[in-house]
Amino acid sequence: MIRTLTLAALTVITVPTLVHAQVTSGRAAVSDPLFASAATLGGLAEVSLSELGLQRATDPELKTFSQRMVDDHTRTNAELTALAARKAYPLPRVLDARAQFCIQSLAGLTGAEFDRCYAKAQLVAHLDAVAAFEAESERGLDAETRAFAAKVLPTIKDHLKTIKPIAMRYDKEEPRSSETSPNK
After folding, report:
1. The CATH number of the domain where 102 resides is what?
2. pLDDT per residue over 15-25, tens digit each?
3. Please, is 84 exposed, middle or buried when counting C-beta atoms within 10 Å of its C-beta (0-12, 13-18, 19+)?
4. Residue 136 belongs to some domain of the structure
5. Is position 117 within any domain?
6. Between these two residues, 3 and 184, which has the higher pLDDT value?
7. Which tens digit of pLDDT belongs to each residue from 53-92?
8. How far apart are CA 88 and CA 47, in angstroms?
């Protein structure tokens, strides 16, 4: 359901832009400033989400993944901020409501339940990021912004490759209800 909502939100955000976008090689170009804004929101959310993962995850793989996300996305966010300043792209400075809600929802969980939901949230975030960075790297109009997206894309794909089996492992496990969980 989260993936469906995420894809619906992405569609709502990108469709109006695509309608007015230039067509390049038979495919609609994407808005470079809109990509920068979306990537910034994703990067801010990723750092906040991963900091929560560092605090709450009990799975050592998720702890390691969380630290890598904080490091990689902090670096990418700084590069994107510098690019946006050169291009005069306006960037958001705070998390959007969806990211705030996700983090707030996860903050109320502990143990294996947190790990399971956190892994799924990371999977969805990276599916979205890969889609956005692919679109920009293939159809962005500004060469420098397109190059930035192409440079970062392999790292984000690697993040997705790392989190996918972890999330799938949790997806196969039955979530415990509070009635059957041992008290901690």
Report:
1. 1.20.1260.10
2. 444 444 454 55
3. buried
4. yes
5. yes
6. 3
7. 999 999 999 999 999 999 999 999 999 999 999 999 999 9
8. 24
Number of H helices, E strands in the chain: 6, 2
Q: Provide the whole-model pTM.
A: 0.80
Tokens coding 182: 């041992």
The CA distance from 6 to 129, in Å, is: 11
> Position of tokens 């970062």?
152
Number of domains in the chain: 1
| Cβ(127)–Cβ(3) below 8 Å | yes
> For residue 178, is it within any domain?
no
Question: Which residue range(s) make up the domain with 56?
Answer: 31-172
Distance, in Å, from the CA atom of 121 to the CA atom of 105, rounded to the nearest integer, reads 11
Handedness of CA 167, 115, 8, 40 (dihedral sign): negative
Does residue 59 lie in a domain region? yes
For residue 149, CA distances in Å to 65, 70, 137, 153 come to 22, 19, 5, 6
Report pLDDT for 171: 83
Q: Is 69 within 8 Å of 124 (Cβ atoms)?
A: no
